[in-house]
Amino acid sequence: MQSKRLGWILLAPTLVILFFFGVLPFFYVVFVSFHSWNPFAVNPEMVFNGADNFRQIVFDPAFLHSIGVTVMFVFFAVVSELILGYILAQAFMRDFPGKAIFRTIHTLPLIMAPIIVGSVWKLMTTPSIGIIPHYLDEWFGITMNIGTSAPAAFATIVLMDVWHWTPLVTLTLIAALVSLPPDPFEQAQIDGAGKRQIFWHITLPMIAPAVVATVFIRLMDALRTVDEVWMLTGGGPGSATRFVGVHIFKEVFPKTNYGYGSTISVIVLYLTIVSCWLLYVTMLAPRTKRD
Amino acid sequence: MKKQNPIIGIVFWSLVSFLTLFPIYWLFVISVKPVVQLFSTPELILTDPYWGNYAKVWGDRLLRSYMLNSVIISTGNAVLCTILGFFACYALSRFKMSGKESIFFWTITNRMAPPAVFLLPLFLLMTQVYAVGEWNLLDTRIGMILVYCTFNLPFAIWTLRPTLDGIPKELDEAAYVDGASSWKVITEVVFPLCRPGLAVTLILTWVFAWNEYLLAATLTNFNARTLTTGLSEYVTTTGTEWGVMATISVFTLIPALIVFGLVQKHIVAGLTFGAVKG
């Protein structure tokens, strides 16, 4: 066994950087969350107000609403991504001509900057110049206006997220499917199991860790999404697409409620960590047991 | 496996590819249209492209300097995160340190923070605390490289951990028995074996840094401004210059495309956070 000291030396730069750029700002945010503060006001003084912010947050309909839409968004987006991703991953398991090209094409959205994804979808859906509302109107007589219709805006955001992130799910599931041993499947086929039985009783349990890992990554990122949504709808119309990330952004910048924004951040960060930790401890860690 | 009609496959994949490619294609179409044509009936097929936006963007010295900043910051950050992540993972996977699993999970929590509210503390820290005399970290490339570590370093650690765990410890021990120093073992025995994992980590962290917007928009003014922030400068109160915006998007997309194309094949294994043993 090598000396532990070397271990800490190797870890030190990481800990130092994350301390100065992650932990210190976090402590600052926690500190501010107990104050009422508008740093951009004429009188930018921090006033200590104890747990008032935290008391306020529990009964704040806007915040609870943003949590609600976020949960709905994460649910619809992640479920669609998992289903689509699984279908595509299974399709990629077969050999067919041009497979490499199709896989490359399918991975492209992944590398696009969220802000660009947001602007592309804005270009396609903005009523005056967008191609989607134009043809919906011309072919089906449907009026689609993401600036005024809440369901249209919400659906567009989910669609955008599915477009952007399904490739990630597909790739993760391909990795999982490739590494499956063939024996259980052959055995099941010999025993006369149907396709559906094989899926529910063999494939799904065996790829479960990969599914959980995907949900973990997507949950983590979806809870802090700002760029795409900000670009596409700005959280509107009304508060239909005001996810927590956007909600905090609006609280901090246009409304300059810095103290309260900090409180929301602390709570959201706490909720994110707890849910991710639960996922990690119950589903991921036991399966990748390290000694 | 049953033989399938190849027609179904071709139709299926063409449809999927069409849906995947259409937004990217449309971005390109918008970028080669003059402003007046944007508001007329959208045409699906491109006729008579107009390259004015490209000339405008390429001729803009400011945007060229943004692009250089983007290249330097994302490359610096990706290299830093990959190397530090490698060292950290070596420590986490090889030493019996108390609380190391907690440290491992803690690193990823740095990636979970809602970004909006952390902008101001970072701004204050960079202007007032991380400063020497007149000089401070705000609006510097090195500052952005360090700030991007908050989301990229945890990612690097989480993607590299399974790679390092997968390399047998006996290998290190054998090298030690042969009298190699710790530094030699790490850099000459373990490092080369991790090359595929390191490549994937390098590329993905590079893409993340390249694509970042919110932090760059707040923590830079001029000297270290990146290409993604250049994009938003064309959304103004007097109206958005859609064509120019689309053109900058295309410019932002191309380097990421090239970089990503290089490691396409290896990427599958690197994206699973160790949930798959392959």
From TrEMBL, chain A:
<feature type="transmembrane region" description="Helical">
    <location>
        <begin position="62"/>
        <end position="89"/>
    </location>
</feature>
<feature type="domain" description="ABC transmembrane type-1">
    <location>
        <begin position="63"/>
        <end position="279"/>
    </location>
</feature>
<keyword id="KW-1003">Cell membrane</keyword>
<feature type="transmembrane region" description="Helical">
    <location>
        <begin position="198"/>
        <end position="220"/>
    </location>
</feature>
<feature type="transmembrane region" description="Helical">
    <location>
        <begin position="258"/>
        <end position="280"/>
    </location>
</feature>
<dbReference type="GO" id="GO:0055085">
    <property type="term" value="P:transmembrane transport"/>
</dbReference>
<dbReference type="GO" id="GO:0005886">
    <property type="term" value="C:plasma membrane"/>
</dbReference>
<dbReference type="Pfam" id="PF00528">
    <property type="entry name" value="BPD_transp_1"/>
</dbReference>
<comment type="similarity">
    <text>Belongs to the binding-protein-dependent transport system permease family.</text>
</comment>
<dbReference type="InterPro" id="IPR035906">
    <property type="entry name" value="MetI-like_sf"/>
</dbReference>
<keyword id="KW-0812">Transmembrane</keyword>
<feature type="transmembrane region" description="Helical">
    <location>
        <begin position="7"/>
        <end position="31"/>
    </location>
</feature>
<feature type="transmembrane region" description="Helical">
    <location>
        <begin position="152"/>
        <end position="178"/>
    </location>
</feature>
<feature type="transmembrane region" description="Helical">
    <location>
        <begin position="110"/>
        <end position="132"/>
    </location>
</feature>
<protein>
    <submittedName>
        <fullName>Carbohydrate ABC transporter membrane protein 1, CUT1 family</fullName>
    </submittedName>
</protein>
<keyword id="KW-1133">Transmembrane helix</keyword>
<keyword id="KW-0472">Membrane</keyword>
<keyword id="KW-0813">Transport</keyword>
<dbReference type="InterPro" id="IPR000515">
    <property type="entry name" value="MetI-like"/>
</dbReference>
UniProtKB/TrEMBL annotation, chain B:
<keyword id="KW-1003">Cell membrane</keyword>
<feature type="transmembrane region" description="Helical">
    <location>
        <begin position="242"/>
        <end position="263"/>
    </location>
</feature>
<protein>
    <submittedName>
        <fullName>Carbohydrate ABC transporter membrane protein 2, CUT1 family</fullName>
    </submittedName>
</protein>
<dbReference type="InterPro" id="IPR035906">
    <property type="entry name" value="MetI-like_sf"/>
</dbReference>
<feature type="transmembrane region" description="Helical">
    <location>
        <begin position="7"/>
        <end position="28"/>
    </location>
</feature>
<keyword id="KW-0813">Transport</keyword>
<keyword id="KW-0812">Transmembrane</keyword>
<dbReference type="InterPro" id="IPR050901">
    <property type="entry name" value="BP-dep_ABC_trans_perm"/>
</dbReference>
<keyword id="KW-1133">Transmembrane helix</keyword>
<dbReference type="Pfam" id="PF00528">
    <property type="entry name" value="BPD_transp_1"/>
</dbReference>
<dbReference type="InterPro" id="IPR000515">
    <property type="entry name" value="MetI-like"/>
</dbReference>
<keyword id="KW-0472">Membrane</keyword>
<feature type="transmembrane region" description="Helical">
    <location>
        <begin position="142"/>
        <end position="160"/>
    </location>
</feature>
<feature type="domain" description="ABC transmembrane type-1">
    <location>
        <begin position="67"/>
        <end position="263"/>
    </location>
</feature>
<comment type="similarity">
    <text>Belongs to the binding-protein-dependent transport system permease family.</text>
</comment>
<feature type="transmembrane region" description="Helical">
    <location>
        <begin position="189"/>
        <end position="209"/>
    </location>
</feature>
<dbReference type="GO" id="GO:0055085">
    <property type="term" value="P:transmembrane transport"/>
</dbReference>
<feature type="transmembrane region" description="Helical">
    <location>
        <begin position="112"/>
        <end position="130"/>
    </location>
</feature>
<feature type="transmembrane region" description="Helical">
    <location>
        <begin position="66"/>
        <end position="92"/>
    </location>
</feature>
<dbReference type="GO" id="GO:0005886">
    <property type="term" value="C:plasma membrane"/>
</dbReference>
